């Protein structure tokens, strides 16, 4: 069990990285990576949200939404899976609200630096994507905790690495047509290529 | 910058020479030579004994020279193109990139694939960032990794010698002996270290590469912290894990070559002392992790160095943060 969980964490951080491999959450990834400090803060926030929402969504999905989950109420053959998007988004939105309150109270500078991107975490596709992958891959509860943490940490790693490279890029001279988004995507591609060597490692 | 690049090329001359001779001597000792390439049919008409050093060097050079010429032409063309398009002087690193790239190729690489890989490496690794001194990963390394990912058969575990189905020394040692306690008797450590390794042309002799690293450290191009960090970390980790010992890891594969000539690239070098230590150690750890735990990419030095190079800005950032007096950390968020 421990090695299985370690494999899930390792895979979701390095191999099936949400930002680099699936290109999920790229809008925030590009927008908030101007500085390492804010990128790190956002990465921690995303990791927190993922670690909490994926297991909660797992419980909701298994106990309420999946086909046959409500048998005990006499509602056999009831299949509520079509509600999973709205249910997952609801949970995520609630958590982002809580996170915003906590940050506002204790880390006002980070909250200011993140600006509108903090509430926008609600509709961050990496966060919803992790919950949907959890359903698709049929994870149990502990596995979802591991996956939620791993996918969040992987996204955080990607954005922090990316932000540090971007700070360094201020010294480089990118051709006019590639400045901004163009070079950002090239660097993202290089980062993805950098992690290819770890593909295949198993515990 | 230019002088550093020149020194790296000079320091790698010994490795290149032994590597070229090594290709020839592997060919002379190969069990079956299939004359399906022009070099081999040409060599059959040469009036020299197979075991003479002259034949072996000639044979190696016949494979090395066309690849080097191709790389130089491609590198020069892209440097000229970008210089003209952007109205800048010619990029100074074009010889360095082509030279390293050629040394990292196997002798059996077809010329058009060599040109393709270097093109990718130069455009996306060097010129879009503004050229030498401004890029974040070594373009030669990026070109090789591109070929590894896109055409794994060309740089796979066999076909290292043209026309001969020869596994690389890395594959021979690793597959036979990682599980057992030590490498088999046929492959002795010292000859492999000195220069009888089948693999990339420049990586034939790990000893020559390490000598090059020493020269670069003395001449001030390479950071002793980076080199020491990599060697110490790979030695320590190899002692802790099962499988090959540290001295085998040092001698095998591309590790020594990458450490001496690619990781010392002045354009990517970490700015801080702690960053140099961290970069070296990260490189060593990644090499060992990929080599021991990853059956898909058994010789992981190239991937390890690519990933470690991409981490350099972050390592520098963390090192700077740790050096700052604590009062400054919070004020940075105001900006």
Write up this protein:
In chain A, helix 3 (36-65) runs antiparallel to helix 4 (84-106). Chain A has 203 residues and is mainly alpha-helical. Chain A is globular. Chain A has helices at 2-15, 26-31, 36-65, 84-106, 108-114, 125-136, 141-169, 181-194. Chain A is built from 8 helices and no strands. Chain B is mostly helical and 335 residues long. The A-B interface holds A 35-38, 109-110, 113, 160-161, 164-165, 167-169, 171-175, 178, 183, 186-187, 189-191, 193-202 and B 85-86, 124-125, 128-131, 134-137, 142, 145-146, 149, 286, 289-290, 293-297, 300, 302-304, 306-307, 309-311, 313-314, 316-317, 330, 332-335.
Q: Can you tell me the residue ranges of chain A where pLDDT is under 50 for at least 5 consecutive residues?
A: none
Rg of chain A, Å, rounded: 18 Å
Average per-residue pLDDT of chain B, rounded, comes to: 84
Count of helix runs of chain B: 16
- Let me know the number of strands of chain A: 0
The greatest interface between two protein chains, and residues involved on each side, is:
A-B, 36 and 42 residues
Describe the largest sheet of chain A: none
What is the overall shape of chain B? globular
Question: Which features does this protein show?
Answer:
heterodimer; A: about 200 residues; mainly alpha; 8 helices; about 0% strand; globular; B: about 325 residues; 16 helices; disordered C terminus
């Amino acid at each position: 069990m421990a090695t299985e969980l370690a494999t899930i964490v390792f895979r979701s951080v390095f191999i099936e990285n949400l930002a680099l491999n699936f290109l999920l959450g790229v809008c925030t990834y590009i927008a908030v990576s101007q500085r390492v400090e804010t990128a790190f803060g956002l990465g921690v926030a995303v990791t927190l949200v993922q670690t909490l929402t994926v297991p909660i969504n797992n419980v909701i999905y298994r106990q309420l939404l999946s086909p046959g989950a409500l048998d005990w109420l006499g509602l056999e053959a009831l299949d509520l899976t079509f509600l999973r998007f709205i249910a997952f988004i609801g949970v995520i939105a609630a958590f982002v609200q809580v996170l915003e309150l906590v940050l506002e109270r204790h880390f006002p500078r980070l909250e200011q630096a993140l600006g509108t991107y903090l509430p926008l975490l609600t509709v961050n596709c990496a966060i919803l994507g992790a919950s949907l992958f959890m359903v698709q891959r049929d994870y149990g509860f502990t596995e979802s905790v591991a996956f939620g943490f791993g996918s969040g940490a992987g996204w955080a790693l990607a954005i922090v690495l990316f932000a540090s490279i971007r700070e360094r890029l201020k010294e480089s001279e990118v051709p006019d047509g590639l400045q901004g988004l163009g070079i950002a995507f090239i660097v993202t591609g290089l980062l993805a290529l950098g992690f290819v060597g770890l593909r295949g490692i198993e515990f | 910058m230019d002088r550093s690049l020149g020194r790296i090329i000079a320091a790698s001359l010994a490795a290149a020479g032994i590597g070229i001779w090594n290709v020839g001597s592997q060919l002379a000792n190969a069990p079956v030579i299939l004359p399906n390439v022009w070099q081999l049919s040409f060599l059959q008409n040469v009036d020299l004994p197979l075991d003479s050093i002259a034949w072996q060097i000639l044979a190696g050079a016949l494979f090395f020279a066309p690849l080097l010429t191709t790389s130089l032409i491609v590198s020069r063309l892209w440097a000229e193109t970008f210089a003209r398009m952007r109205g800048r002087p010619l990029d100074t690193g074009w010889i360095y990139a082509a030279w390293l790239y050629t040394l990292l190729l196997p002798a059996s690489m077809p010329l058009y694939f060599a040109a393709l890989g270097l093109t990718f490496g130069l455009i996306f690794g060097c010129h879009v960032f503004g050229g030498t001194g401004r890029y974040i990963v070594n373009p030669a390394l990026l070109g090789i990794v591109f070929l590894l990912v896109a055409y794994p058969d060309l740089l796979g575990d066999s076909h290292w010698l043209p026309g001969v189905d020869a596994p690389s020394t890395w594959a021979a040692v690793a597959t036979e002996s990682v599980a057992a306690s030590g490498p088999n008797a046929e492959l002795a450590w010292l000859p492999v270290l000195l220069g009888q390794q089948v693999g990339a042309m420049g990586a034939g002799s790990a000893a020559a590469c390490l000598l090059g690293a020493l020269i670069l450290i003395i001449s001030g191009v390479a950071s002793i912290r980076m080199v020491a960090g990599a060697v110490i970390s790979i030695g320590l980790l190899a002692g802790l894990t099962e499988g090959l010992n540290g001295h085998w890891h040092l001698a095998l594969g591309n590790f020594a070559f990458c450490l001496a000539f690619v990781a010392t690239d002045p354009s990517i070098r970490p700015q801080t002392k702690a960053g140099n230590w961290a970069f070296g150690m990260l490189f060593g750890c990644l090499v060992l992790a990929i080599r021991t735990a990853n059956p898909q990419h058994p010789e992981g030095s190239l991937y390890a160095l690519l990933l470690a190079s991409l981490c350099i800005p972050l390592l520098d950032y963390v090192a700077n943060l740790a050096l700052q007096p604590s009062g400054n950390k919070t004020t940075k968020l105001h900006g």
